[in-house]
Amino acid sequence: MLLPTEIKLGIVGLGRLGKIHADNLVRNVPGCRLIAACSVVPEELTFAKNSLQVTELYSSYDEMLASSSIDGVVIVSPSGFHVEQITKAIRKKLHVFCEKPIGLDIPEIEKVVDLIQEHPKQIFMLGFMRRYDDSYRYAKKLVDQGNIGELSVIRCYGIDPSSGMESFVKFAKASNSGGLFADMSIHDIDLVRWFSKTEVKKVWALGKNAAYPELDEVGELETGAAMLELQDKTIALVVAGRNAAHGYHVETELIGTKGMVRIANVPEKNLVTIYDEHGAIRPTSQDFPERFKQAFISEMNEFVACIREKRQPEVTPLDGLEATKVAAACKNSWQTNQLIDL
């Protein structure tokens, strides 16, 4: 039986990340109940029913929104649907959690940001989960306290494991991911803005398809890099890729006038070291669900807490807009081989 204080949620999209969010809502987020799920894939609805005991199943997003049972929605659909689905949910007076990016088209994002801001009583939260990772939060505290002085350089690596490359190539030939910078670097772009509290002024980006040159045909990138100049002249270097042979590699370095901080310079799986004929080996994280398991739980707990406490989260729709503007500028720079002013 539902308690009066329980937040009742529906989810749209039950792919790899959608399943993670759905499972967390059921097992790891107290004070809420996942009662509705929407997907156009029958097997995903079967998963929701059998594995998570979700009682309301929909193949139509509009039909799920029409349910009087839900207080909010969790959007984990493909990026191209985000703006439309946010808009419909906000107009239905529902709270919204949306995975990044907030959208792919800047004018559309600007309109939905305006709509969100017109409804301040409805909670809106964007899925920049690295802000909820313990290591990143600790580093943020050090920077804000001035422990490393004034920031000079921020370096970010975000590289997916090579084991996922073939499936991504198939996806890229059939669908639009938004491009490497919007799909992957957007997390690092958000971190740059978060740590520096400064906006990006200029970008210059490069890219190369070495292992999978067929990505050239669909305008996608296997590996890309961007140099960013911030408004206070802080330098940021963002490297994104889809072909890390050793696993999932996410690393951030912050260089200041008094010192420096590195977060996960070795993407360690745990504290185990293996000594064998290959030498001393530290196992590494193999995918983002493993590396950011707790961060995903923490951000969803924050979303539910914001609804219960009637307060907006730290991550705002403007964060999504600004990060997407930078990602779009990086893509434009790569395509035109020019320095882009924002």
Give the SSE layout.
Layout: E1 7-12, H1 16-27, E2 32-38, H2 42-52, E3 56-58, H3 61-65, E4 72-75, H4 82-91, E5 95-99, H5 106-117, E6 124-127, H6 134-144, E7 151-161, H7 165-174, H8 180-196, E8 200-208, E9 223-230, E10 235-244, E11 249-256, E12 260-263, E13 274-276, E14 279-281, H9 288-291, H10 293-309, H11 317-336, E15 340-341
Parallel strand pairs: 1-2, 1-4, 2-3, 4-5, 5-6, 7-10
Antiparallel strand pairs: 7-11, 8-9, 8-15, 9-10, 11-12, 13-14
Helix pairs in contact: 1-10, 4-5, 5-11, 8-11
GO biological process, one term: NADPH regeneration
Family: Belongs to the Gfo/Idh/MocA family.
Keywords: Oxidoreductase
Structural commentary:
Keywords: Oxidoreductase. This is Inositol 2-dehydrogenase. GO terms for molecular function: nucleotide binding; oxidoreductase activity. Belongs to the Gfo/Idh/MocA family. It is a single chain. The protein is an alpha/beta fold and about 350 residues long. The protein folds into two domains: about 120 residues, Rossmann fold, CATH 3.40.50.720; about 180 residues, Dihydrodipicolinate Reductase, domain 2. Helix content is about 40%, strand content about 25%. It is built from eleven helices and 15 strands. The strands form three sheets. Strands 12-11-7-10-9-8-15 form a seven-stranded mixed beta sheet. Helix 1 crosses helix 10.
